[in-house]
Amino acid sequence: MNAESSRMPEKYKRNYLKDREAKILLDQATKRLKISLERILTSKSKVELVETEFAEIFLTDGKSILVKTENDLFPTLVFSEFFASAPRAVVDMGAVPYVCKGANVMRPGIRRFEGEFAKGDLVLVVDERYGKPLAIGESLLDKSEAEGATQGIVMKNVHFVGDRIWNFLKELGAEA
C-alpha cells in the first residue's frame, strides 16, 4: 500500500440517516450478514453515514458497523456484535501476514471452520493463536466443499486489517 492510499481522504461528509433510511439499511444488512441487526442495535441508536470517495461507512454511537462499497455491503472489523454469531475461518500464523496485506484466503492456510456458511456468505477470518479478527471474507464455497478442499482460494478478502477502510476508521476515531 502506498502513502497516498493510507492517508485520510481530504473530503468526506458526515450526516445522520433518517429513521426510514436507517431501517432500509438495517434490512439490507440483516439479509447480507444473516443476523438481525435490529436485535443488536437499540431503538435509541442513530445511524450516522460517513461518505468518502471509496465507501460509505455507517456508525452507531461513534462505532463503525458497516461499509457499503459500489459492489458490496459488509461489517467492519470492529463490529464485535457481528463476531458473536459470524461463521469463522481460523487461519494458521503463517497466513496472517498475507491476509493482512489483502490476499485471498487459501485452503492450505486454514486450520478449521467454525459455524455454518454457504457460498457467498460473509465469514470472519481470525488467527489461530489469539482469535483476533484479521479480515472479512466472502466464501467462494459452501462449508462442506471448503472442508473437503485441499488447495485453492476459499474466501475472497473483502476487508482486512490495514486496508484503506481500516486506516480511515483509525484516523476518524471510529474504532471499537
Give a brief outline of the structure.
The chain is α+β, with helices and mostly antiparallel strands and 176 residues long. Helix content is 26%, strand content 31%.
Care to describe what's here?
The chain folds into two domains: 76 residues, Nuclear Transport Factor 2, Chain: A (Roll); 79 residues, PUA domain (Archaeosine Trna-guanine Transglycosylase, Chain: A, domain 4), CATH 2.30.130. It is an alpha+beta fold. The chain is globular. Strands 7-11-10-9-6-8 form a six-stranded mixed beta sheet. Strands 1-2-3-4-5 form a five-stranded antiparallel beta sheet, covered by helices on one side. 26% of the residues lie in helices and 31% in strands. The N terminus is likely disordered. Strand 2 and strand 3 form a beta hairpin.
Descriptors for this entry?
Nuclear Transport Factor 2, Chain: A, five-stranded antiparallel β-sheet, 2 domains, Archaeosine Trna-guanine Transglycosylase, Chain: A, domain 4, 176 residues, 11 strands, alpha+beta, 7 helices, six-stranded mixed β-sheet
Helices, strands, pairings?
Blueprint: H1 3-6, E1 13-16, H2 19-33, H3 37-40, E2 47-51, E3 56-60, E4 63-68, E5 73-75, H4 80-83, E6 88-91, H5 96-99, E7 105-106, E8 110-114, E9 122-127, E10 133-139, H6 143-148, E11 153-160, H7 164-172
Low-confidence stretches: 1-6
Determine the number of helices (DSSP H or I, runs of at least 4 residues): 7
Amino- and carboxy-terminal Cα gap: 24 Å
- Name the overall outline: globular
Task: Identify the CATH homologous superfamily of the largest domain.
Answer: PUA domain
Query: What does the largest sheet look like?
Result: 6 strands, mixed
- The CATH topology of the largest domain is given as Archaeosine Trna-guanine Transglycosylase, Chain: A, domain 4
CATH class of the largest domain: Mainly Beta
Query: How many beta-strand elements?
Result: 11
Q: Share of helix among residues?
A: 25-40%
- Number of structurally distinct domains: 2
Order of helices and strands: HEHHEEEEHEHEEEEHEH
Percent of residues in β-strands: 25-35%
- CATH structural architecture of the largest domain: Roll
- Radius of gyration, whole Å: 16 Å
Lateral strand order in the biggest sheet:
7-11-10-9-6-8
Average predicted local confidence, pLDDT: 90
